[in-house]
16S rRNA (Cytosine967-C5)-methyltransferase (Sphingomonas carotinifaciens), 395 residues
Amino acid sequence: MTPAARTQAAIELLDAIIGAARSGGAAADTLIARYFAERRYAGSKDRRAVRERVYAAIRAAGDVPASGRAAMVALADADAELAATFDGSRHGPAPISADETRAAGGVAPAWLEAALLASGLERQALPALVERAPLDVRVNRLKATRDDVLPAFPDAAPTPFAEHGVRLPTGSAVEASAPFDEGAIEVQDEGSQLVGSVLQAVPGERIVDLCAGAGGKTLALAAAMNNAGALLACDVDRARLQRLPQRAARAGVTIAETRLMNPARETEALADWLGLADGVLVDAPCSGTGTWRRNPEARWRLTAERLARLQATQAHVLDVAAALVRPGGRIVYIVCSLLDEEGTDQIAAFLARHDGWSAEEPSLPAGRRHGQGWRLDPAADGTDGFFVARLRAPC
Ligand SMILES: C[S@@+](CC[C@H](N)C(=O)[O-])C[C@H]1O[C@@H](n2cnc3c(N)ncnc32)[C@H](O)[C@@H]1O
């Protein structure tokens, strides 16, 4: 493909991504994969270049742009090489005119920027929310140590804070590596590794991972428990939960049992665990404002209505978790969001609903106290953004 044709492809893809963001359609990655599946003439360099242009345009536009062209023209205003590809050639975009529409910049839609500032984030911390993220992996201590893994990747370095983390150059082919194949590493952001460790699960305990998804944190819990004890991984999403057993097998995890639940009927599915868990991890469904670095189009999709629905689910899963914990046991509540509505406000509301429970300070090597919990943010900590709180049940 010529450079101009690559820009035209990025414009077409952005049009599809913008349409999907407005209608709740497929994610950008899916649309990009479909686009190239139908255009076999595009080589791997073309695909990489187009993808980079698409994501640069998504990162640069805080709100949904009027069109793919408006997004690319805004990008070209600051990039002469890109601007030169608007050359009107056969497969390229028409030349740029001075008065045509440009996508607005910004970090997020105005209502979301306001909500982030109201949640205590400094304005200068906002751009880091949409910068490219590093590629972090967690070393699976059931299979290897960090020193075993580091030599397998030439440009790898230990993560600054997480004990078992390794940071690799973005784009490293982790899943084609021997350590991945052997189950010695899992892709996991350093922040995710840190907040997952707040439960401090130890061998022999009875632990529930209530919102386990495909098991990213379940596998870390099993490693912390050295495969000894009981570990129940639950979710309401069959497709996600179904991926867990295969990942567990690769990681040498033997104690994770999965359980699919019906939404709003979780306590029925968990009747045999009521009041018995030493600890419950609630990695709650959330708006993902802390993970825009990896998924920048998410900020185009979030609405106030969706946020309100997520908040209701978060309160509900916290209440389910409280029913599972034994006297004196604990809950760790995590959201990959920096909005107080999903973080410290949820904890305050939980404590108001549940007599005798208290919040304990998680105290991690990165981040800082925030309300009744702890917060990591991309600008200050170089991790995805997270809120985490530890709650102690009365004895
Ligand atoms: C942030 S994701 C979990 C990610 C996962 N723990 C990991 O580390 O990879 C939140 C999960 O909550 C699940 N969820 C949504 N509603 C739920 C409910 N009522 N009970 C349990 N899980 C729920 C979603 O299906 C989703 O998998």
User: Anything to note?
Assistant: Residues 3-23 form the longest helix (21 residues).
